[in-house]
């Protein structure tokens, strides 16, 4: 359970590639070049997380950090108008940024390695946070420690993350243009314009081919999460990716309507219901123990994945509904 | 049997590396967008095919082998689609 952190040529060259692509992303002349370089940076970062023994983070980085964020950036760079004044960093700002980044990185690295290695307050076992979490996993009813920690041991944090996601989606939907968010009778724009520019047939064919595969992958990630890397957040992001692909290619038409709003609310409501269940049936608010803990966790994960997918897609749809 | 698989892996891996190098050379040296896309989409897809073959003969189960083939087929479709989209940028 403790991956030996070795620093070899592979780790060093990946770290170097990360720094180079990050710099190239920040200092690229064209916005679209910057977006593509950001995607390359994300790929390197995912590989790096995988290499240092954190496959869950690698998956999350690949689908959320690179996939969904990259889609938003790509949309911004290709469709949104360029801001009137483009502020380029001066040398002083560059130096200040480098120093600040190095300081924050060194500080975080110091405290994180301390936290992972520190013994828990004088008891006999010389284990840090990793050891405590691994020791508590059997009580959560799932086999994979990360899922156990996320949905059971620190479920209060995860509930708050869902609330943050709901708030973000609410704000995005609230600012979405009316013709996109309202009913089809309102607005009066012709159907072809509402649908957006239709992608070429070859792209629609590609999306029809790939969307089922990605859906299958999302389902696999969801159910794999109880025993191996994967889980609700990764599956939800893959689901959002399908929705974004289907929408932008014109294969389907997704609308932020009542059904979407229900999906957005479902995750937080289900989480609160599970928390109340713990209060009524068990010992405490959000405490999930006992023989059914595993089943409840997986059911909750399914609902959370749908809500996460809907929220991420809603943020994209609300922003992408705004045309020049 | 293992020796045969190893020989196939080495040969196919080398061939894949060769095609990737040729594709990269073409991307860097060809004059216009479409020639560059031609180098990238064709040579790299074939290179990935050879690398997939090299991995394929080392797979210990049919499921793993099928996943490798699936990865190659999806990459083929993605390369063709993105090359088409990039070429469309130049269409009058």
TrEMBL record, chain A:
Similarity section: Belongs to the CPA3 antiporters (TC 2.A.63) subunit B family.
Record protein name field: DUF4040 domain-containing protein
Membrane topology note: Multi-pass membrane protein
Subcellular location: Cell membrane
Database matches in InterPro entries: CPA3_antiporter_subunitB, MnhB, MrpA_C/MbhD
GO cellular component: plasma membrane
Residue ranges of every copy of the Na+/H+ antiporter MnhB subunit-related protein domain listed in the record: 202-297
Keywords on record: Cell membrane, Membrane, Transmembrane, Transmembrane helix
């Amino acid at each position: 359970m403790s991956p030996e952190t070795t620093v070899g040529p592979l780790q060093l060259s990946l770290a170097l590639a990360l720094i180079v692509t990050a710099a190239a992303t920040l200092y690229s002349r064209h916005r679209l070049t910057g977006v593509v370089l950001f995607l390359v940076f994300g790929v390197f970062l995912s590989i790096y997380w995988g290499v240092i023994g954190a496959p869950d983070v690698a998956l999350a980085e690949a689908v959320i950090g690179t996939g969904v964020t990259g889609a938003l950036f790509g949309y911004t760079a290709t469709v949104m108008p360029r801001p009137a004044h483009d502020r380029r960093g001066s040398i002083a700002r560059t130096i200040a940024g480098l120093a600040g980044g190095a300081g924050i990185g060194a500080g975080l690295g110091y405290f994180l390695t301390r936290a992972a290695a520190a013994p828990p307050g004088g008891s006999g076992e010389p284990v840090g946070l990793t050891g405590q979490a691994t020791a508590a996993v059997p009580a959560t009813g799932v086999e994979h420690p990360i899922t156990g920690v996320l949905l059971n041991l620190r479920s209060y944090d995860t509930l708050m993350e869902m609330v943050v996601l709901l708030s973000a989606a609410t704000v995005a939907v609230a600012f979405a243009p009316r013709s996109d968010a309202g009913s089809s009778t309102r607005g009066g724009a012709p159907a072809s314009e509402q649908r957006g520019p239709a992608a070429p047939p070859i792209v629609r064919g590609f999306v029809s081919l790939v969307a089922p595969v990605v859906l299958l992958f999302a389902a696999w990630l969801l159910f794999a999460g109880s025993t191996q890397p994967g889980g609700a957040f990764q599956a939800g992001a893959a689901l959002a990716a399908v929705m974004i692909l289907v929408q932008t290619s014109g294969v389907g038409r997704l609308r932020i309507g009542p059904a979407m709003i229900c999906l957005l609310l479902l995750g937080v409501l289900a989480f609160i219901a599970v928390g109340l269940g713990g209060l009524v049936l068990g010992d405490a608010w959000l405490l999930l123990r006992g023989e059914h803990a595993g089943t409840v966790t997986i059911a909750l994960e399914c609902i959370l994945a749908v809500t996460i997918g809907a929220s991420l897609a809603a943020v994209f749809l609300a922003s992408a509904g705004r045309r020049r | 049997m293992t020796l045969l698989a190893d020989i196939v892996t080495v040969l196919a891996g080398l061939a894949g590396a060769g095609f990737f190098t040729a594709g990269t050379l073409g991307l860097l040296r060809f004059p216009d967008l479409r020639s560059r896309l031609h180098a990238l989409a064709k040579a790299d897809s074939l290179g990935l095919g050879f690398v997939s073959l090299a991995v394929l003969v080392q797979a210990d189960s049919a499921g793993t082998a099928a996943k490798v083939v699936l990865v190659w087929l999806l990459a083929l479709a993605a390369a063709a689609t993105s090359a088409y989209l990039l070429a469309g940028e130049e269409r009058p």
